[in-house]
Amino acid sequence: MAGAKPRVEFDSRGESGNIYCILARVRTVLRDLGRAGEYDEVYRAVTTSGSYREALGHIREKVDLVDLDGGGEPPRAGKVRS
Asked: What are the extents of the domains in the chain?
């Protein structure tokens, strides 16, 4: 299936919902697909985002990001810092 986004699952209410845990999974998936350059773009966009939700939006541009909890945002979402 050409052009399909790889799937990355996380739980927004658990450890895997940490934006840096999500980035690590995205890095692995994109690197395995030979798309490491795309990860660099995502990393820069995420680390300059003003919120968790904005950061997830940047990640979703490259992967099919699935929240297993369904919440979409952790209880104490704050500014993403690099």
From this structure: 18-64
Tens-digit pLDDT profile for the chain (82 aa)?
Answer: 456 899 999 998 999 999 999 999 999 999 999 999 999 999 999 999 999 999 999 999 999 999 998 765 544 444 555 4
- pTM attached to this predicted model: 0.79
Beta carbons within 10 angstroms of residue 82's beta carbon: 9
How many angstroms separate the CA atoms of 39 and 68, rounded? 22
